[in-house]
Amino acid sequence: MLLFLARRIGVMLATALCLTFVVFYLTNIPAKLETLAKTQAGSRISDAEVASWLDRNGYNQPMLVRYGEWLGVVPGWTRTDGDGAVTGRCYRLTGATEPGAAPDRCGLMQGYWGNSTRFRAPVSQVISARLGATGWLMLWVLIVMVPMALIVGVLAGMREGSRTDRSLSTFAIASTATPEYVSGVVFIALLASSTVGLSPLLVQWGWIDGPVLFQGNARSALEKITFWNFALPVMTIALYGMGYIARITRASMTEVMTQQYIRTARLKGVSFPNIVLRHALRNALIAPFTVIMLQIPWLLNGVVIVEVLFSYPGFGWTLFEAAANNDIELLLAASVVAVLVVLVTQLISDIGYVWLNPRIRIT
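RESULT FIELD:
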């Protein structure tokens, strides 16, 4: 097990380096840097002024050198002007003004994530706050989505071809085929509109005090999460994700129920509920477990539409703002977080195989 973990961690580090370099290269192409210069120094500056701004801020160095500076394995660039004042990457990130007061290296490995040009704040503060907001959304989505998906998949797979199977499979396919921006708009129109949907009827009947049943804007959930301001985004994401998990669970359950040991248990007179719970369910959960673990990075990066639709400033909303405003440092930090989440969830899913099926051995 220890050797397996050591190998996987080594592969994870190599993969993280490759993926972050790709993102670093794409966010530091000349067109992006020119846009950044015009955003920071003025949209009407000349090409010569753009080149001068990029040179003053260390963007004219080779790509690999700047990537090493960002990682913290290469000393940050410094420059001394005619008055003897020293400037450089590490001086700007640390706020040092005296020569020699800044560290030689100030990159990711030293904890310096840079400053966001969109939010005018350290990237680490922006990422931690937004990641925490998305973390709560992911938690409640998983609490709602996973049990519902497993129940639908197990019930459909217990008796293949039955009316229950056909009904639940149709529901699972329909939920997966409906994008979040469609179901989200439908939920807002039906439950969070003061002019159409159920809310005007409930107000007319005197069943609710406010103008709407649910809140279509989830920004207030940052201060206090309630059922009324958090239900719609959770329902929108959970409905889309549960269909895929349910279909995988149904397929796995159907395959397990046709195995020889299930037939033997039936011939021995074991009750059908005991066959499902004690013999079939654990083996049937191997494939769904992988899919559930894959939902975590999807929830982290795939909630952009939902967070923008419901005005919930989480990680996805921040990623959208960073991309729209060419915030290079924030985009790089978000890519690091996304890559780490994907790699860690993959490692957890591999280890989970052994617990679910003792016949699988890690060598």
